[in-house]
Amino acid sequence: MKFYKPEKNGLFKARLITACFALWGFANDITNPMVKSFSKIFRMSVTDGALVQLAFYGGYFMMAFPAAMFIRRYSYKRGVMLGLLLYAIGAFLFFPAKESGAFYPFLAAYFVMTCGLSFLETSANPYILTMGPEETSTRRLNLAQAFNPIGSLAGMYVAMNFIQARMNPMSTDDRALLNDAEFEVLKETDLSVLIGPYLAIGLVVLLMLVIIGVSRMPVNGDKNKKINLVPTIKRIISIPHYREGVIAQFFYVGAQIMCWTFIIQYGTRIFMAQGMAEHAAEILSQKYNIAAMVIFCASRFICTYLLKFINPGKLLRVLAIAAGVLVLGVIFLQNVWGLYFLVAISACMSLMFPTIYGVALKGLGDDAKFGAAGLIMAILGGSVLPPLQASIIDLETIGNSFPAVNASFILPFICFAVVAWYGGRVVKRTQREF
After folding, report:
1. C-alpha of 137 from chain center
2. In whole angstroms, what is the distance from residue 52 CA to residue 76 CA?
3. Which H helix or E strand runs over 402?
């Protein structure tokens, strides 16, 4: 059974679009560790540092429907190109942000960059769905999405080796003792380290923009230029499997970002309790983060294969329940085993985003552009929920001695419960169809 339509140069074009999945994976996972880095550089709380995620995923939310309207009016290819352009501009804005010496210009740069990522995801995900028969669309999207964690691994590796390892190792407590002049010198040095990888990825994205710009791409789904936004939204919202899919996607993305963003805080607490210095504990925790992404990547390919034999809703429900059980271990184990459980959650998460996405868009036809926008807007869960978790972590302890970072993982547990509910709904709906 073929995943892509057999057309001249079709495989090359599919590879170009699939490469974009890796590019936004890189952006996502070079950013997650920056919550901790910005908190140290600017001497902020974890909650303030989590504003990085608010700005990052806020761009996804704001641009999803404008992206869908742009794609409907023009084409998937132009949507991808505009996304790459905004991505590059946002990355280059890190230089003036560094020159300002303030935190909020970085948030603006993240916002512009993720406006571009919103265009990319709104364009590329449904584009892949159109490149073959509908009955294999969910598997096809899972395969393309398997390249997303490859980009994520690259982002994590760069964050660990070219940002965190090169920043000044001075602890958060010691930084708080610096006078203003000493603090400004240290901040300037650390920001110079931080922006380098972002400027480099901006150049890579520009190169990809040129390659796609000169390539002749298929025009799948670009015939209908009418927008009719309000009637289309009403129509797709009335479809249960789509409406429920948007809800499930909101909570899944929130769980994913929380599990990956705060693995550093979780691991740092454990390793510092063993006598390790804060900076060394952060670097070691990032290695566990990379291990989680390796597991996520491998599991994505395994789950894509399993979808040949197992109903997507059933596999989604099983993995969501397993993730919930693992989260309970993260909450109640206060040693390295809790960190192992946190890493293992990634094996369960690998299937979730593309499966929810593919199931929710099934049967939408030309409305898939706006349906995709709604699912991209659901990425707002990655913006709203991490700051809530960060506010719990800032409490430091719950009661007399229970670590707040452990207790904060009750939020991912709730999220996985919602995903399991959606998987069950998909199973029931499939059974009724047969």
Report:
1. 21
2. 29
3. strand 402-403
- What is the phi/psi pair of residue 409, to 5°? -80, 5
CA 390 to each of CA 89, 116, 262, 386: distance values in angstroms, whole numbers, following the listed order:
29, 26, 8, 6
Q: State the Cα–Cα distance between residues 226 and 238, nearest whole angstrom.
A: 20
Give the tokens for residue 308: 């040949």
Domain chopping of the chain, boundaries? 10-217+228-433
CATH tag for 10-217+228-433 (out of 1.20.1250.20, 3.30.70.141, 1.10.730.10, 3.30.460.80): 1.20.1250.20
CB count within 10 Å of CB 248 equals: 30
Q: Is 400 exposed, middle or buried (0-12, 13-18, 19+ CB in 10 A)?
A: exposed
Beta strand pairing call for 397-398 and 402-403: antiparallel
The two structure tokens encoding residue 404:
């707040």
Give pLDDT tens digits along the chain (434 positions). 444 444 445 566 677 888 888 898 899 888 878 888 888 899 888 788 878 888 888 888 888 888 888 887 888 888 889 999 999 999 999 999 999 999 999 999 999 999 999 898 888 877 776 766 666 666 777 777 778 878 888 998 898 889 988 988 888 788 888 888 998 999 999 999 999 999 999 999 999 999 988 887 665 544 555 666 678 788 888 888 899 999 999 999 999 989 988 898 899 989 998 999 888 898 899 899 889 988 998 898 898 888 888 888 999 999 999 999 999 999 999 899 999 999 999 999 988 988 898 889 887 777 777 888 888 888 888 888 988 998 999 888 888 889 999 999 999 999 999 999 999 998 888 776 54
Rounded CA separation 209/204 (Å): 9
pTM: 0.77
